[in-house]
Amino acid sequence: MTTLIIVRHGQSMANLEDKFAGQIYNPPLSPLGHRQAERTAEYIVSNYKIDKVYSSDLKRAFQTAEYIADKLGTEIITEPGMREVFAGKWEGMKFSDIDIEYGEEFRLWKTDIGIAGCLGGEHVSELADRVLSAITKIAEANDE
């Protein structure tokens, strides 16, 4: 049986700036994010047998995966299908500015994300389909 361990990236500079990172605005990990990634890698490597490391190609995810791959002495296989939501017009904007400029759409994002979408970007259902497809592809390529 194939087991996938899915790790969210550590804190990014976008988190510190209170900005919507998305895909085009592609900030690195913050200093805290690097420490989180390192501790996560230590835990994973100590508790699981890892054969391969896959990552989104976005900086914050790739930097998080690097800590795991380095401990294992393996390469990272990038999978763009695992990227964060494409946030369209919200890319790189402060959340407070999104609330002011796109209030109604942003309130829907905050209250019912399952039916929400980023203005000019990706709908959450599209994100879910894309990520599920990428994860399924990875699982099928690594049966057993």
Describe the structure.
By secondary structure, this protein is mainly alpha-helical. The chain is built from 6 helices and 2 strands. It has a two-stranded parallel ribbon. α2 packs across α3 and α4 packs across α5 (103-111). It is globular. It starts with 12 loop residues before the first helix and ends with a helix. The relative contact order is 0.17.
Features:
144 residues; mainly alpha; two-stranded parallel sheet; 49% helix
Could you give a quick summary of the protein structure above?
The protein is mostly helical and 144 residues long.
Topology (SSEs and partners):
Elements: H1 13-17, H2 31-47, E1 53-55, H3 59-72, E2 76-78, H4 95-101, H5 103-111, H6 124-141
Helix pairs in contact: 2-3, 4-5
Largest sheet: 2 strands, parallel
Please provide the ordered H/E string of secondary-structure elements: HHEHEHHH
Mean pLDDT reading: 95
Total strands: the figure is 2
Q: Counting H and I runs of at least 4 residues, what is the number of helices?
A: 6
Provide the structure class. mainly alpha
Helix content: 40-55%
Taking the alpha carbons of the first and last residues, their distance comes to 5 Å
Uncertain stretches: none
- In spatial order, strands of the major sheet run 1-2
As a percent range, the share of strand residues is under 5%
What general form does the structure show? globular
Q: How large is the radius of gyration?
A: 16 Å
